[in-house]
Amino acid sequence: MFGLEARRPSVKAFSKCISYKGGDGLSKTFSIKIEDLALEIVERLCALCKNDDYKRSFRARARSLITDLYVNGISYVVTICAARSSANAVELGLTSKTPDDFIRVYVNERLAKKMGLKKSESYGYAIYGASLLYALRMLNIIKSTKLSDAIRELMNNSLADRKAYQFVVWLKRFAEAYIYE
Torsions phi, psi of 119, nearest 5? Predict the structure, then answer.
């Protein structure tokens, strides 16, 4: 009687279909999956960032903040990331079209320092927070372009909490696989 209701949704239930008109004028549809977003972010971070301390800091955040997300929700974790790095650095995830857009800012020392990033730990928090916001925006969970508005959107948003949790599980696994301690 309760078998079907108690099942967890499949990964397919958390993918997003996007339709657009291609350069040839024909409509095209593709699907964004949470695990694809997580893998893309980790791969691009590994390709663009040459500083191993920044990558290790991101890996540490991926391993430790998953519990905070599960217990306190996505708005809490995004707020922690902004507090321990900078609001401007985390907010980049809301306006970036690709992970490269926010990762390139962090690997440029001059731009990163302008955003208030000084220690490798702050880089890890910034990249992690921006990755969360980027993924939620790509999945159409949030529409905001300002951090304060995004946090308000995420408060008491159980759908955002569920999707963010699924995303960070994948992000953690890929970070552990691709980034060495």
Answer: -100, 160
* Other beta carbons less than 10 A from residue 68's beta carbon: 14
Tokens 């921006």, residue located: 130
- Cβ neighbours of residue 17 closer than 8 Å, sequence gap 6 or more: 29, 30, 31
Tell me how far apart the alpha carbons of residues 163 and 133 are, in angstroms, rounded to a whole number.
11
Cβ pair 160, 74 in contact under 8 A? yes
**What is the predicted pLDDT for the residue at 17?**
45
Q: Which parts of the chain register pLDDT below 70? A: 1-31
Q: Which residues of 98-120 are buried (b: 16+ CB within 10 A; e: fewer)?
A: ebeebbbbbbeeeebeebebeeb
Q: How far is CA 154 from CA 7, 69, 133, 172, in A?
A: 25, 12, 10, 21
Q: Tell me if 39 sits within 8 A of 62, measured CB to CB.
A: no
Kindly report the number of other CB atoms within 10 A of residue 81's CB atom: 28
Both structure tokens of 42: 């980790």
**Two structure tokens written together for 79:** 């707020």
